[in-house]
Amino acid sequence: MEHLEQHERMEMWEKIQKALVDEQIDQFRAEFLELHPYDQAKIFEEQDEDIRFLIYSYLSPEEMAEVIEQVDRDFVEEFIIEMVPAFAAKVMEHMSTDDAVDILNELDKNKVASFLTIMDKKSSEEIKELLHYEEKTAGSIMTTEFVVINTQMTVKEAMRHLRKEAPSAETIYYIYVVDSLKKLVGVISLRDLIIAEGDWLIQDVMSERVVSAPVGEDQEDIAQMMRDYDFLALPVVDFQDHLLGIITVDDIMDVMDEEASDDYSKLAGISEVERSGDTALSSAKKRLPWLVILLFLGMLTANVISRFEATLEQVAILAIFIPLIAGMAGNTGTQALAVAVRSISTGEMEKKGKVSVIWQEAKTGLITGLSCGVIITILIAIWKSNIFLGLLVGISIMATLLVATVSGAFVPLVMHRFNIDPAVASGPFITTLNDLISIFIYFGLATAFMSFLI
Amino acid sequence: MEHLEQHERMEMWEKIQKALVDEQIDQFRAEFLELHPYDQAKIFEEQDEDIRFLIYSYLSPEEMAEVIEQVDRDFVEEFIIEMVPAFAAKVMEHMSTDDAVDILNELDKNKVASFLTIMDKKSSEEIKELLHYEEKTAGSIMTTEFVVINTQMTVKEAMRHLRKEAPSAETIYYIYVVDSLKKLVGVISLRDLIIAEGDWLIQDVMSERVVSAPVGEDQEDIAQMMRDYDFLALPVVDFQDHLLGIITVDDIMDVMDEEASDDYSKLAGISEVERSGDTALSSAKKRLPWLVILLFLGMLTANVISRFEATLEQVAILAIFIPLIAGMAGNTGTQALAVAVRSISTGEMEKKGKVSVIWQEAKTGLITGLSCGVIITILIAIWKSNIFLGLLVGISIMATLLVATVSGAFVPLVMHRFNIDPAVASGPFITTLNDLISIFIYFGLATAFMSFLI
C-alpha cells in the first residue's frame, strides 16, 4: 500500500465524512482508526469546527493524542484551545512529553498553569521539568519516556524489563545503562541485546563508548552529531552525567527541516520563517525589518551617487549601467556568502583555515571577474560603438566581482568570529554593501577617466 | 563520554600518529579501533598519503570498510583509487551495498568494471543491480541488506532468523514480511515482535498497513514521507510489489542535508553545490552560468534605461535612486520567492490554492509597499527639500514592492506548473526581472510628471 495520495485521502474523507454526518460512530471509528496517525491528522485538519467537535466526542483522549502529535504545528494551538479543557489535558497526558511541551510553549501562561493543574501529577511534573529548558536546546527537544537499565541486570532481566516498558517508551532500540548513582555509563542496542546470552551481565555486553549531549547543547549541533554518527537516539545528560532524557531521530528530522527553512529564509532576508497560518499582515511584519533597513542602506547608496552628480550630468549615459554593475556585485556576493555560511555551519571552514578560504574566493572572483569583464566590454563596445565606455564598464565589473566575492566570504567570517549567526549576514545586507562598493568603483573610474568619455 | 572535540581528536591523533611512526601496529589498532567509525574517518582523512598507506596495511578490509563508509564523500574516490585494487575491492565488498554504489558511481566506467571483476560474485551482482537505478531515486539510495520473513513463520522462528541475520543487516528494527510470491504484504517492528507470544504466526501479528516507495520515486519525496510518518526504514518495491530493498533513516538524513544545501545554493544562484574539495576554477565554473545570464539580463535593463536617456539628461538626479529602487524590488521579490518555493516543496501551496496564495502576497506587498513608500517620501523630501522627488520615489517604491512581491510568488508557480524545479527560478532571476519592472515604473512616472521635477 502506498501512502495516501490526494485522491485516496478524498475518498477516505468522504467515507469518514458520511459516517460523521450520519453520526455513525462505529463506522467512523472503524475507518478512521485504521489509518496511520499522520493520515488521521491530515484528514482531521481539513474538517470544519462542528465536525471537529464530533470527532472529539468520538475518540478517546489516547486516540486523539496520536492525531494531535501529527497535526501541523501551526494549527495545533487552535485545536487544543477549542477542546473542553479536561479533555485537552487528558490528550496532552497521553502525548509524548516533548510534543506536549511544544504545544504548551505556544500557549499563554495562564492557560498552561490551568492545564497543568487538571493533569495527573506524574505527567504535569514531567512537563513542568521540560518547560524550563530554553528553546532550541537539547532539553527542549528531548523526551523523558525512555528505557533505562542498570549494569547489574542480566540480559534476560533486561529483556523482561524492556517488554514491560516497550509500549510507552519513545524508542527501545537503544537502551541506556546507568550505575548505582544514576550516572550514564553505557549503552546497548536492542540488536546486540537479542544476540547476547541470557545470563550475561549488562555491564559485560554494553558499550562504554556512549556519546551523549549536555542538556543546554544547541539543537543544530545535535542534528549534525546524530547525522554524522548515524544514531537513532541520543541520551541527554546534566553536567554530572545524570541521564535526563533522550532525543530520537524523528524529532531530529523535524529539527533539520526547521533549521534548513530558517537558513533559507535568512538568505532571502526574512527575519522569521513564515508559516502557513500567517495572515498578510504577519507576513509583512516578518519581511519589513529587512526592507526598512535596506531602505536606509539604499539612501546611503543614493548619497554616494549624488556625490558624482557632476560626472552624471556630463555623461548621462553612465546611469544606464548602474543596475547592471550593482546587480552583478550583489549576486556575486550572495554566491560567496552562501558558500561561506554553509562551510561555517558544516565545520569545513575550521578545517581549511580562514586565510585559505579567503584566498580561494579571491581567485574565484578573479576568474569570474575576468570572464564577465571581457564579455561586457565586447558587448558594450559593439552596442554603443564606444570602446572606452565598454572598457570602463568591463574593468568596473572585473574589480567589482573580485571585491564582492571576497567580501561575501569575509563578512560572515567576521560575524562568526563575534558570535553573530553568519546566516543573518544574509543576501540583502551583502547586496547593499556590494552596491556601495561597486558604485564607488564605477563612478570613481568614470570620474578619473572622464576625458576619454566625452 | 562526549563525542570527540577538536582537542581530543588532536590528542588521539598524536597517540595514533606516534604508534604509526614507530610502526607499533598493535598499539595503533588498540587505540584506533576503540573509536566510533565517524571519528576513525575524521582522523584518517587528516593523514598524509604515506601514513594512509600504512593504515591500509594495518587494517583488515572489513575494518577499513567501516572507516570508508564515514569518510567525506568528496575524498572517498581518491582513497579508493590509491588503494591496491584487490584491497579496494575487498573494502567495497564489506561496505553497505548502497555506500559502495555511491562510490562506484563517482568512478570512471573502466575502473568500475575492473573492480566488479575482482569482487566476489554475490557482492558484485548486488552492486550491479543497484548501479542501474537513476541518481536521486529510491533505487539509488536503498540497500539490499535487509531482513525478510514470511507470513507462515512463528514469532519464535522469526526471532531465530533475526538473530542470525542481525550482524549483516542494515536495520533489524523493522522486519518486512513477504508472501509465497515474494510480494511485500506486511511489516512488524522489533518492538512488537519481542512483545508477541513465541508460537503466534507472523501473519497474525504483522501490520498489513505497510507503506512502501516505488523504486523510481524521488529521494526528496521519500525524505518527506519518512519525516511525516516517523519511519526508521522504508521498503522499496517494484511495480508488482516485490520487495527490492530498504531505505534507512540515516541515509535519509544525508538526503535531507543534501537537498537543503541544494535549495540554498540555488537561491544564491549557484548551479551546483560547491564541495570542500573544489578548486577556485571549479568554483568559478559553478558560479559563472548564472553570472553570464545575469550579464545579458543586465544589458536588457541598461537598454530600458537608455530609452529614458532624454529624461535622465534633463534630471540627472533621478539616477541616484536607481540602485535603491531596483534593490528594494529585487529583495522583496526574493523574499516572496523563498516563501513560495518552500510552500510548493512542502505541499502547502496545493492545500491553500494558488489564487489565495497570490492574493495573500498581493496584500503583503501592499502593506510593505505603503510602509516603505511613506518612509522614503519623508526622507527624500527632507534630504533634497523636494516634495515632488520624494513623492515620485515613494510612489515608485510602493508600486514596485507590490508588483515585485506578486511576481516573486507567481514565477515559481508558473515554473512548477510546467514541471521546472521552482528553486531554479532563484534569487538572481527574480532580481533581474524586478529590476526591469521597477525601472519601468520609476522612469515611466518620472517622464509623465516631468513638469513637476524641473
UniProtKB/TrEMBL annotation, chains A, B:
It is found in: Cell membrane; Membrane. It is a multi-pass membrane protein. GO terms for molecular function: magnesium ion transmembrane transporter activity; metal ion binding. The keyword Iron-sulfur does not apply. Acts as a magnesium transporter. Homodimer. This is Magnesium transporter MgtE. It comes from Gracilibacillus salitolerans.
